[in-house]
């Protein structure tokens, strides 16, 4: 009987394989989702923006958090019931000016939730708005997820503060945050709170809205410089900028003393970043990513070299729209089940598939197209302004601050002047033996021996306005006389805005005056630096004369300001 060949051959084959060290391979298992056949993490595909949305929302929430934190700490002292420019007075004056208009017309001219609130306790209302903003922005910052309702609430709350904030909220970054925040509303699903809402992919229209924003910000800043101060054209502006910027930091001291050729290089680099790099946005994916990297690096340098509030942090936000998931994947973990892994699965599922149109998706697409049309329409005056030889910067053309003009440092001051507030307990302000003592602000230069502060992205609004007041007159800044009156009364709220009150533990001063000084950085290695002085100052003259509380009372009554009561 002939044996069965394969059956009898099996032991021999097995023995032969053992002798040669060869064994059968294990059956292959399918690769885990998000991994290539070798088991290593697979790479994300270009062209989707799930992770981009998370990064954008977190970055925007961070800026909102800082803005509402500043509001919570300072609004009561600046625009509260007994603030330097009470918003209740501002609202009443606005209401009186538009007394022949309907309530809706008044609201449309200046939209703010405060029209709907009780004005008997404005301080509590301001705190409530700020705390709500802090709570919502904290949630979005921590979780990385949001919906239309949350982002619209942040936008509405901050717009309510900006529109009653008077001169304290009159700077370009306020409108820039509102425009950025408005676009952020359309990043999210209506109700769903998910970091990866599967049925709500990031809209390309919204992404291009962010790109259009950063394009206008940078090109506007570059054009206003070229059309403005001559020093931008002869490349000498950086010889002065670090010393004369609103609130210098310690790094600015050393950068100011850089060689002349370094300052020329800085100015040329600035023109390259602001005038040429913005056009990279329209040259394809790689050029767009290069644009995003360069703009973020540029803003990081500005953060290091000065205290420009949260402006530079905010300007990074629309630059993030230049990156897709493939570019931002390195920021996320690759472990199974991670966000990156889930995005890769979603990319695999939608590749080559045409999902059925859902009603919500159709509505959302219509909303996004409407947004694109709105942005295009509102951009007409902005583009005309960019093309105009009479370009204006940091201006909004509608009460919602949706599409605005931007720019910074169109003119550079060539010397730094400061207003120093001083008080004396002497009964006679003109007496030769009167001892005048300086009040110190939290961040602006005062005591020449005090090191410049480092606070970005936080912001001291009073210190910033003092910089403007120094090259204007007190008649243009009546709030500074209000501040003087509060110092004469040792007002607790006003003193909380300062770093040092020379009359702590003593009766309030009898007189307060403003002195005008010229400031220059001390020279490293020089005599003043050896004495520990960062600044050298020289008196120019009086900014406003010595004032007593009794002299200021009629001034306060005329403006409807609460009369300060001495402690």
From TrEMBL:
The chain crosses the membrane at residues 50-72, 128-155, 205-224, 296-314, 366-387. Belongs to the lipase maturation factor family. GO terms for cellular component: endoplasmic reticulum membrane. It comes from the Eukaryota. InterPro entries: LMF, LMF1/2_C, LMF1/2_N. It comes from Piliocolobus tephrosceles. Residues 402-545 form the Lipase maturation factor 1/2 C-terminal domain. This is Lipase maturation factor. Keywords: Endoplasmic reticulum, Membrane, Transmembrane, Transmembrane helix. Residues 1-39 are annotated as: Disordered. The gene is LMF1. It is a multi-pass membrane protein. It is found in: Endoplasmic reticulum membrane. Involved in the maturation of specific proteins in the endoplasmic reticulum. GO terms for biological process: protein maturation.
């Amino acid at each position: 009987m002939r044996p069965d060949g394969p059956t009898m051959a099996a032991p021999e084959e097995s023995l032969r394989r053992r002798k040669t060290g060869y064994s059968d391979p294990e059956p292959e298992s399918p690769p885990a989702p998000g991994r290539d056949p070798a088991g290593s993490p697979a790479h994300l595909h270009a062209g989707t923006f799930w992770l981009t949305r998370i990064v954008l929302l977190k970055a925007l929430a961070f800026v909102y958090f800082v803005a509402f934190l500043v509001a919570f700490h300072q609004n009561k002292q600046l625009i509260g019931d007994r603030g330097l420019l009470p918003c209740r007075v501002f609202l009443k004056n606005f209401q009186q000016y538009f007394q022949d208009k309907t309530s809706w017309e008044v609201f449309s001219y200046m939209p703010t939730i405060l029209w709907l609130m009780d004005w008997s306790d404005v301080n509590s209302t301001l705190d409530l708005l700020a705390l709500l903003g802090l709570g919502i922005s904290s949630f979005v910052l921590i979780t990385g997820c949001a919906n239309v309702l949350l982002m619209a609430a942040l936008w509405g709350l901050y717009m309510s503060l900006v529109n009653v904030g008077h001169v304290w909220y009159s700077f370009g970054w306020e409108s820039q945050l509102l425009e950025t925040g408005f676009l952020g509303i359309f990043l999210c699903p209506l109700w769903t709170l998910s970091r990866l809402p599967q049925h709500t992919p990031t809209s390309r229209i919204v992404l291009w809205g962010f790109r259009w924003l950063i394009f206008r910000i940078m090109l506007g800043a570059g054009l206003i410089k070229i059309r403005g101060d001559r020093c931008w054209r002869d490349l000498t502006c950086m010889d002065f900028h670090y010393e004369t910027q609103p609130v210098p930091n310690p790094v600015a001291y050393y950068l100011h003393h850089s060689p002349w050729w370094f300052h020329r290089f800085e100015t040329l680099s600035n023109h390259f970043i602001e005038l040429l790099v913005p056009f990279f946005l329209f040259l394809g994916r790689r050029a767009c990513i290069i644009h995003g990297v360069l703009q973020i690096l540029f803003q990081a340098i500005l953060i290091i070299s000065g205290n420009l509030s949260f402006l530079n942090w905010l300007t990074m936000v629309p630059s993030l729209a230049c990156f897709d998931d493939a570019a931002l994947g390195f920021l996320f973990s690759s472990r199974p089940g991670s966000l990156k892994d889930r995005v890769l699965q979603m990319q695999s599922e939608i590749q080559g598939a045409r999902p059925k149109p859902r009603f919500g998706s159709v509505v959302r697409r219509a909303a996004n197209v409407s947004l694109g049309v709105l942005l295009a329409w509102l951009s007409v005056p902005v583009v005309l302004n960019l093309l105009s030889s009479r370009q204006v910067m940091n201006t909004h053309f509608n009460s919602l601050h949706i599409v605005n003009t931007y720019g910074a440092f169109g003119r550079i001051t060539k010397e730094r002047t400061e207003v120093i507030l001083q008080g004396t307990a002497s009964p006679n302000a003109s007496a030769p033996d009167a001892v005048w003592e300086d009040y110190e602000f939290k961040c602006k230069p005062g005591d020449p021996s005090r090191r410049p502060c480092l606070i970005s992205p936080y912001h001291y609004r009073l210190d910033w306005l003092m910089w403007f007041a120094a090259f204007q007159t007190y008649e243009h800044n009546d709030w500074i006389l209000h501040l003087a009156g509060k110092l004469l009364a040792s007002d607790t709220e006003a003193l909380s805005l300062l770093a040092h009150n020379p009359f702590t533990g003593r009766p309030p001063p009898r007189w307060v005056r403003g002195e005008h000084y010229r400031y220059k950085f001390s020279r490293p290695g020089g005599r003043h630096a050896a004495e520990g002085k960062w600044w050298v100052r020289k008196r120019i003259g009086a900014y406003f004369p010595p004032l007593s509380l009794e002299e200021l009372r009629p001034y306060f009554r005329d403006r409807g300001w609460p009369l300060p009561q001495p402690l």
